[in-house]
């Protein structure tokens, strides 16, 4: 392997300026994460504790193996909407009895844990991750069902929550429900469709319709306990497999269920792990503020990959895209990283060949985004940029090895697609606070609209309103800038979270470990088709 030599001047004023800008963005990010952690706020948190109940993150902490990490997913879901940041549910990957599991926990301090439109999207994403990576699912249930004022956005798509549970089970992926309180209406189907169900005596209440609804529908008088209490479900309906004394006991039983799953990873084990030769703290000063100045992604790789060792592929060809082989926490990866933003024909062909090679060797791919898209212009169009870009997108689309995408800078236009953006189903996609993503940069988009408007005005024989044009451009630039920022995009679940650059190696290692619960296998070149095309 070839050791990378970082060119980053960590003692210079430029590095210090970039670092300060990144720390300012991280401070904003931490403030938004704090909103997710506070749930419904101090009033409802205190009320929940007064009832002798644990908060959702306290339940998760007890469930996980001691001192093991928890990779929280989509913590900013719902950001910028009318709903609480976090979308009234916590999702993530954690280790329980040595087994990596997807954990989905309702936050009952936010409108009783009711599901809003962002809740269901967040749970959909967690279910996809569980299915793709073969991870058991543990639901920590305490939910009043759908948030009724927004039912029109929940009811129709929300049925997928229950379909996903049954499909996970059909795929041999265990589903476990620990019921901590009310699980009513649609919420009742979570334990109803799980493989293993734990309820808590005098706490858990599971019914399709509570006493008031039953009274209205049938005229029948009933109480919570006889209608859906834990003891009834353990003794009469059979819905409860285990009856716990209290919340810690329910969590203890849940851990024992996982311990008895006889779970084994199916992917190859990691090799020896070597720390990078450069300090991860220095990742704070790599990316220029504003993204108008190019930076070398090798400076990122030197602080992320094992031993800072990287075997570069085609280093002299298409050099605005860096490709090569490395390991992260002992797992092999093929890396595609934008160096100078623009993707030309050479970069596109290089990427297509490299992706095929990774599939031949069953090597997962890591995409580091900092691209303004594919090159435009007469010479490039005549040179075939469309068909060469299509080669790259075709290769990404049909690659079968797992992909991880990390947005560290710009991710604009079709370059976002070629570098395996959200629509191309990477197993995981995270962003740094410095990332931006949109159809094009704010100035370019506003400029295009201005040119079109000016041409239309001239065609009508009218004088062009220059003052109005300036106002339009300023408004469009401000809108596109705001809508391309990582917190906005993360709020809409276009990524799995915005992470501190210093956590990059850890996050990638957790993702790769989760991925290897399933076999890692590329598109097969088995002698019945074609081998690798040299582009």
From TrEMBL:
Q: Which residues form the signal peptide?
A: none
Q: Which domain of life is it from?
A: Bacteria
The record's listing under InterPro entries reads: AcCoA_carboxyl_beta, ClpP/crotonase-like_dom_sf, COA_CT_C, COA_CT_N, MCCB/AccD1-like
Location of the CoA carboxyltransferase C-terminal domain: 275-517
Q: What species was this sequence derived from?
A: Prauserella endophytica
The record's section on PROSITE patterns has: COA_CT_CTER, COA_CT_NTER
**Which ranges carry the CoA carboxyltransferase N-terminal domain?**
22-273
Lineage, please?
Bacteria, Bacillati, Actinomycetota, Actinomycetes, Pseudonocardiales
Pfam families named in the record? Carboxyl_trans (PF01039)
What protein is this chain from? Acyl-CoA carboxylase subunit beta
């Amino acid at each position: 392997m070839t050791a990378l030599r970082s060119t980053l001047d960590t003692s210079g004023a430029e590095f210090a300026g970039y670092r300060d800008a990144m720390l300012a963005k991280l401070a904003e990010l931490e403030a938004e994460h704090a909103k997710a952690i506070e749930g419904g706020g101090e009033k409802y948190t205190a009320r929940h504790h007064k009832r002798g109940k644990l908060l959702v993150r306290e339940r998760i902490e007890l469930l996980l193996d001691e001192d093991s990490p928890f990779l929280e997913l989509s913590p900013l879901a719902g950001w910028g909407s009318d709903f609480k940041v976090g979308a009234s549910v916590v999702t993530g990957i954690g280790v329980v009895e040595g087994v990596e599991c997807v954990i989905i926990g309702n936050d009952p301090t936010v409108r009783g844990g009711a599901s809003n439109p962002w809740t269901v999207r967040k749970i959909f994403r967690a279910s996809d991750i569980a299915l793709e990576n073969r991870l058991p699912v543990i639901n920590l249930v305490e939910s009043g069902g759908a948030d009724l004022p927004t039912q029109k956005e929940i009811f129709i798509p929300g049925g997928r929550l229950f379909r996903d549970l049954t499909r996970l089970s059909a795929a041999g992926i265990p589903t476990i429900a620990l019921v901590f309180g009310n699980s009513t209406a649609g919420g009742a189907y979570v334990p109803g469709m799980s493989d293993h169900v734990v309820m808590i005596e005098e706490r858990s209440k599971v019914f399709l319709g509570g006493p008031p609804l039953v009274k209205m529908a049938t005229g029948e008088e009933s109480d919570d306990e006889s209608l859906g209490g834990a003891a009834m479900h353990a003794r009469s309906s059979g819905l409860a497999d285990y009856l716990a004394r209290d919340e810690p006991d329910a969590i203890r039983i849940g851990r024992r269920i996982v311990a008895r799953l006889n779970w084994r990873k199916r992917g190859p084990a990691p090799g020896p792990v070597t720390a990078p030769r450069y300090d991860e703290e220095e990742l704070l000063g790599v990316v220029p503020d504003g993204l108008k100045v190019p930076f070398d992604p090798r400076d990122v790789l030197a602080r992320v990959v094992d031993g800072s060792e990287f075997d570069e592929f085609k280093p002299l060809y298409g050099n605005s895209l860096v490709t090569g082989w490395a390991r992260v926490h002992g797992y092999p990866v093929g890396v595609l990283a934008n160096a100078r933003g623009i993707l030309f024909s050479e970069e596109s062909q290089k990427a297509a060949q490299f992706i095929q090679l990774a599939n031949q060797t069953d090597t997962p791919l890591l995409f580091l985004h900092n691209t303004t898209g594919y090159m435009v212009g007469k010479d490039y169009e005549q040179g075939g940029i469309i068909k060469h870009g299509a080669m790259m997108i075709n290769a990404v689309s049909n690659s079968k090895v797992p992909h991880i995408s990390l947005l560290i800078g710009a991710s604009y236009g079709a370059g976002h697609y070629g570098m395996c953006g959200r629509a191309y189903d990477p197993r995981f996609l995270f962003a740094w606070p410095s990332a931006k993503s949109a159809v094009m940069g704010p100035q370019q988009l506003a400029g295009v609209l201005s040119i079109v408007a000016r041409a239309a005005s001239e065609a009508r024989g009218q004088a062009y309103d220059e003052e109005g044009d300036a106002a339009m451009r300023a408004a469009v630039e401000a809108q596109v800038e705001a809508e391309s920022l990582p917190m906005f995009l993360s709020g809409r679940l276009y990524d799995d979270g915005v992470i501190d650059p210093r956590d990059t190696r850890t996050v990638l290692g957790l993702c790769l470990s989760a991925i290897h619960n399933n076999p890692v296998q590329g598109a097969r070149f088995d002698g019945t088709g074609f081998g690798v095309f040299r582009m």
